[in-house]
Amino acid sequence: MSDVNKTIQKWHASFRKGTDFDSWGQLVEAIDEYQILARQLQKEVQSTNSSDFTEEQKKTLGKIATCLEMRSASLQCTQSKEDFKLEELKKLETIIQNILTYNKKFPFDVQPVPLRKIFAPGEEENLELEEEEEDAAAGAGSIEAFPPRAPGTLLPRLPSEPGMTLLTLKIEKIGLKDAGQCIDPYMTISVKDLNGIDVNPVQDTPVASRKEDTYIHFSVDVEIQRHVERLPKGAAIFFEFKHYKPKKRFTSTKCFAFMEMDEIKPGPIVIELYKKPTDFKRKKLQLLTKKQLYLHLHQTLHKDS
What 3-state class would DSSP assign to 304? Predict the structure, then answer.
């Protein structure tokens, strides 16, 4: 069996595993499987040195990745308006199996994930030295045309429920020594359980509003997509600071911060920044800098009595 057929067989097995978990009601395992497979497909789509698949086939793989992410989001947020059903996802099984010969119209009107390099956790570590050299080389004259980035994916506040609390986080600003050099900076916000699994849909802010000295200002509200009382024990809210790397033509995570459940209280909060890769399990944390530079947030709690 050729390498490409082995790869397709592996994708198909992963797809079946995810839909089996989904149909058995093992939602955490299903989400995990869907997200891993989506990331593998996106990696193939964005690979420039692979000739195993035609551009048309890569486009189809990208659309399958989008559907996997949509199903994953539907499982994470029961109130999602964009509900993508398991029965719909199952229609894609034969397309994955026969990707080399599939030539019909894709069954759903979706687009591949925007062309932004996606990394699995820990995959960016090897790029740190290259990025530091690149940052040092980046000057005022190195302006290039950048591919368009997907706009912010911030979601509206959930409907209120008697006796339940909703949290709005205003991301005010982040302090970085090289703030002025960051291109198209934005923040990805996620809520993870102790195992690093998403418990809410992931949200991206729009690109930051302005830069000033060692600060990048966002001044944007993020609505946490679950009532505080329903957040699992040990969960944390993560903030990943991302920016565009023109020479590599991908978006990179520069650092991250997180807030634990006991830190949820009204008013301002300042939290520390950690070195990438983002450690969603919070086991090996390394401070980004000894300087007094932090992520500045403001919390508002809404309780319907």
Answer: strand
The pair of structure tokens assigned to 205 is: 């802010």
Q: Is the dihedral of CA 134, 139, 145, 149 positive or negative?
A: positive
| Strand ranges inside the chain, DSSP E | 165-175, 183-192, 203-204, 210-212, 215-223, 236-245, 250-260, 267-271, 274-275, 295-303
| Contact indicator for 58, 66 with CB cutoff of 8 Å | no
Closest among 174, 169, 208, 180 to 300, alpha carbons compared: 169
Q: Which of 33-47, 64-78, 116-130, 194-208 has the lowest mean pLDDT?
A: 116-130
Confidence category of residue 50, pLDDT binned at 50, 70, 90: low
Q: What is the DSSP letter of 162?
A: B
Contact 235, 250 (CB under 8 A): no
Specify the pairing of strand 165-175 against strand 295-303.
antiparallel
Contacts within 8 Å (CB) and 24+ apart, 4-7 = 4/52, 4/53, 4/100, 7/44, 7/52
Query: Mean pLDDT over residues 167-178, rounded?
Result: 95
| Inter-axis angle of helices 27-46 and 3-24, nearest 10 | 150
Average pLDDT over residues 35-59: 83
> 24 burial class (0-12, 13-18, 19+ CB within 10 angstroms)?
exposed
Partnered with residue 216 across adjacent β-strands are 174, 211
Helices (DSSP H) in the chain: which residue ranges?
A: 3-24, 27-46, 55-76, 86-90, 93-97, 128-137
Q: Which residues pair with 250 in a beta bridge?
A: 245
45-49, 241-245, 260-264: which has the minimum mean pLDDT? Answer: 45-49
Phi, psi (5° rounding) for residue 247?
-70, -30
- The count of other CB atoms within 10 Å of the CB of residue 157 is 13
